[in-house]
Amino acid sequence: MTSELDIFVGNTTLIDEDVYRLWLDGYSVGDAVALRVRSGILEQTGATAAVLQSDTMDHYRTFHMLERLLHAPPKLLHQLIYQIPPSRQALLIERYYAFDEAFVREVLGKKLSKGTKKDLDDISTKTGITLKSCRRQFDNFKRVFKVVEEMRGSLVDNVQQHFLLSDRLARDYAAIVFFANNRFETGKKKLQYLSFGDFAFCAELMIQNWTLGAVDSQVDDMDMDLDKEFLQDLKELKVLVADKDLLDLHKSLVCTALRGKLGVFSEMEANFKNLSRGLVNVATKLTHNKDVRDLFVDLVEKFVEPCRSDHWPLSDVRLFLNQYSASVHSLDGFRHQALWDRYMGTLRGCLLRLYHD
Amino acid sequence: MPGKLKVKIVAGRHLPVMDRASDLTDAFVEVKFGNTTFKTDVYPKSLNPQWNSEWFKFEVDDEDLQDEPLQITVLDHDTYSANDAIGKVYIDIDPLLYSEAATVISGWFPIYDTIHGIRGEINVVVKVDLFNDLNRFRQSSCGVKFFCTTSIPKCYRAVIIHGFVEELVVNEDPEYQWIDRIRTPRASNEARQRLISLMSGELQRKIGLKVLEMRGNAVVGYLQCFDLEGESGLVVRAIGTACTLDKLSSPAAFLPACNSPSKEMKESPLVHPPSHGCRSTHNSPIHTATGSRLTQNFSVSVPTLIYTGMGSGSAGKEGGPFKALLRQQTQSALEQREFPFFTLTAFPPGFLVHVGGVVSARSVKLLDRIHNPDEPETRDAWWAEIRQEIKSHAKALGCHAVVGYSESTSICEEVCILSASGTAAVLNPRFLQDGTVEGCLEQRLEENLPAGCGFCHIPYDELNMPFPAHLTYCYNCRKQKVPDVLFTTIDLPTDATVIGKGCLIQARLCRLKKKAQAEANATAISNLLPFMEYEVHTQLMNKLKLKGMNALFGLRIQITVGENMLMGLASATGVYLAALPTPGGIQIAGKTPNDGSYEQHISHMQKKINDTIAKNKELYEINPPEISEEIIGSPIPEPRQRSRLLRSQSESSDEVTELDLSHGKKDAFVLEIDDTDAMEDVHSLLTDVPPPSGFYSCNTEIMPGINNWTSEIQMFTSVRVIRLSSLNLTNHALNKNFNDLCENLLKSLYFKLRSMIPCCLCHVNFTVSLPEDELIQVTVTAVAITFDKNQALQTTKAHVEKSLQRASTDNEELLQFPLELCSDSLPSHPFPPAKEHLESASSNSGIPAAQRDRCSSWIELIKLKAQTIRRGSIKTTVTVEKTSPMGEGNFRNRSAAPCANSTVGVVKMTPLSFIPGAKITKYLGIINMFFIRETTSLREEGGVSGFLHAFIAEVFAMVRAHVAALGGNAVVSYIMKQCVFMENPNKNQAQCLINVSGDAVVFARESELEVVSTQQPAANCQPACTGGEVTT
């Protein structure tokens, strides 16, 4: 006796959250059944393995049929075939677009192309996430990217509107799209200590302040690309380190203000010029795409690592950066105050977030 | 020209890409009715076209309005080649033809294609202007309302119930050899869909005409079926019950009638202690197949069984003449009718007087081509023959009517089994005539038939019984006689007194049959049928006893014929009727009493059976009160003591017979174990596992003993097909396979729906088919409904209070109780029938067990209870022996949360006639839909499971869309009448045909009703809105 056909169709589509998770995690039906057995469900319910197998198959089939709709979530809301309560629809979508931290760290900033897709095998091996799940996550990134790529308006809003994600998840996707578009390097060894959250935080600040959208909300691609004019203008900041008087003045202003307040004052004093040069040079190089990509590498190399090697506590870093940005306003010979604030305001936020072990 | 049909095509959405080059579609729409076709403009390059067409107007006869469906075809315009069809929508405009139902059909309809399934949606508005028809000789029957519901619809009152209407139409089947001719399948399948749609329209019109002739205005319990006879054609037939219905308009009258069953149940007195004795019989086949008519019209009438339980005729002195009078009246009312049949399964109070038992008839026919479709005489004659037989069976039971009547067929190649079954009954003439009954009769009637047991009393003459039966005095009223077991096809009457809960009982059976042709085949089948019926009956009886119950409701026996086997599947809901005697146990008797080990084995089995019965009694809370046999006024003194020692077969059978004859009660059902087969049968009896804790199941509308439904419902369809290994199939192996299939299916359902616990599967409907030699297909449709354990307490409290009232007013009852408590239950009784019957009936009342035991008298107990209740302390006591799920005491507070469907557009579907926690405020018309789906890329669509899963989901979606377009929010009495699945995996092809029906309704939550009632008229005026928003 073999089962040829075995289906269950409810007027309200049954969604089992646990099975959905297993499906999203890319387990085969067999593996999913084994995992469910291990969870002790048979003992709890008195069911047999055959029942579990049939149930799992059924859910997998349902998810498979729903997947097409999940690719365009508004369709899931408007379709007539599966009657699913709104709260469940939201759950389906949210979970489908959720991603693994380990995975996103691997592809963050990479081009979402076929080439990268081929590397998914390696990523799967490295992270222990099933290839199937890697593919889904990668395809999600790519799909969202394609849809919002050339759209007007706020990136987060666009993601939210077209994929009906929660605010949090939409923000994460905005960061992923932003990183993919600007191809920021995140995979270098020295960046490994950073989490996706760190990068997403920086992305949000950069989107808010450094993109076209920050000055004009009526342009295409406004949140995707960095404001080219702004990057060009950043060259003007060079004077802060090129002009020796200005640099000395800046240093003395900072040192005066921080004397006695900083635990690592002497180290700061000794390193001021290096640090300032590092931060300003990062700004001036941003006209080159290559240097834009290396932004995080540079920040870590030029600022985070020197401070860390001198064991600056975070509070000192904060005091220093605040004073460092603010003191520029007292430099009479410097005319690009607004530009400086637009640059340093964001950079300060990023650096503070990046500064940890 | 009595009608004008107006159609407007508004827009489309989610259309498929038809032009690969542009990834877009140039869509336009053809609107066809009868022979007239209109077209919209082409809306170029869009997947969401906005046609916003003018009103297309069709001027048509109302006859056509009834017959024809509105056909809407969406096409892709192609300049160079033929236009490609995207898909179609068929809209049955019948609901627009009667005044009270829908006024407009408006909404998004899925565009359906037989190959691709649903491809986007189209927004359509349909209206009908009807002119008054003055032609007396008209052929139309506009205005006759149709209901699938097998009871009087909730917002109507039955003025007269006229009776049986039937009709059938036949036609050539445009495509019956699906798999072989799959070359141009789409065209032929669409032709089929169209044809069937047309035929059912015609059928409905003809039935309507008959109703008008009878001066009725509605058909209730309308059941339409298709017989796909293959080469010999396509038969569409329907039966129903003609009624004159009155709409309940005044809110006062409306409220009680529309009470959801939960309310009604609350009022039914559950705390009725008495138990009753019954016994069932089945008379062995009387008329055997003669096999003489082996001609083209080959036909074998198959001996039929009458399942019954019986009651007395001449018992009470005053009862006799009254009964005769009643009989006379009913008889005269019914004799005018050719067939006094009723497809109803639930009745207005007082309608059903007595129930005789199940009557059924089967007949094996050889199909031949229908030569003249306009004169389908052969098919008519076949059914007439069967109905005649049913009628005579009913007569034999002293009944003049058959209720819960249904008909079915099973076809395999050219052999067809026609089956009909129903419940023989005596009805109250009040509803059958135009109010000619004198009031005094009615009064007497009510006096004489105490609520809750009257229908159990036997309708036939005790001295002239049609078959041997064991009668006892009714355990409720003590005046009339009742049988020991009662089988019926109807729902449990709402006023019936039931102890404990009910459960689904199934008998499953397979019989191998040699492959044969034509007459030989038919003869072989008809020879097998009586044996199958007998075995099915035996199985049912055994399982019923094993559950400790004494009556079956909703019995449905399906016999399916295949190439090389016959399958029998009987489903029913077992209950313990308080009016019938306590069923005896099951006794096993061996053939060889001398063999020690064998004897030991037997006694082991016996013990297992006894344990099972005891367990079931606990599980279903069957704790009938112990009634002393020496009750004053009981005319039959019955010594209760009866040894239950294991006896060898010879003596046991004698003794039992003797006992049965003398007392007709407490008879043990003796199972003889004379060969291994019998042994296996006993084993298989014990393999049926009860549903997991928190689950109940039944195949009737409502579950006896549960009356506090919450609003969560989940209707589902589950299909399984198994392939039998063809090696050496034996009857036994086959039985086991089939049994496992059904059991596993049930287990899967329980598992899948576990999140709804505590819940009950209601209206569980199994259908078996044998699509190919080694394939068995089982289709189950049912609804899971959650209920609230906590509320049960309160209703129980109400019951107790009620019973207190009763006790104080009703002398007779007062007399009975003390006696019963004083007489100690007998220690030798194997299944201590719970001393605390009160406790059982009001299962969770707050009296500690210890206290209860100390209660020396009934009166004290009552006082104590009354106090407890007054103090309001509703504590649960869980006695040790009570391990039933209801007694576990861990009440998960499932507060009747306002269900999550507050968003627009949710359409509920249920096979029941009501929606728990809600009131049906309007019936919008019947939904009767037929779809065919085919594929030539089976593997790509996920194999057979993927294909069928998607198709069923699509069918649900289309039903919901139509209901929403009518302005409704639910389908009640939903049924999937056919699900014919065929596959050809080698060719990567499959095909499926589904027929569903139900009643589209508008319901309002009881909690919202006060608010809604003021807005109701407004809401109903705008069904268009509801329809339009269905998808949001």
Please outline what is shown here.
Chain A: InterPro entries: FIBP. The complex is a heterodimer of chains A (357) and B (1032). Chain A has 357 residues and is mainly alpha-helical.
Describe this structure in words.
- Chain A is 67% helix and 3% strand.
- Chain A is mainly alpha-helical.
- Helices cover 29% and strands 30% of the residues of chain B.
- Chain B is α+β, with helices and mostly antiparallel strands and 1032 residues long.
- Chain B has 20 helices and 34 strands.
- At the A-B interface, strand 1, helix 4 and helix 5 of A face strand 28, helix 12, strand 31 and helix 18 of B.
- Strand 1 (2-10) of chain A pairs antiparallel with strand 28 (709-723) of chain B.
What's the mean pLDDT score of chain B? 72
Report the uncertain regions of chain B: 250-324, 435-449, 628-668, 792-904, 1012-1032
Strand content of chain A: under 5%
Q: How many DSSP H or I helices of chain A?
A: 21
Q: Judging from the principal axes of the Cα atoms, what is the shape of chain A? A: elongated
Tell me about the largest β-sheet of chain B: 6 strands, antiparallel
User: Rg of chain B to the nearest angstrom?
Assistant: 29 Å
Euclidean distance between termini CA atoms of chain B: 39 Å
Helix content of chain B: 25-40%
As residue ranges, the low-confidence spans of chain A are none
- Assembly category: heterodimer
Rounded to an integer, what's the Rg of chain A over CA atoms? 25 Å
As a percent range, the share of helical residues of chain A equals 55-70%
Task: Identify the overall geometry of chain B.
Answer: globular
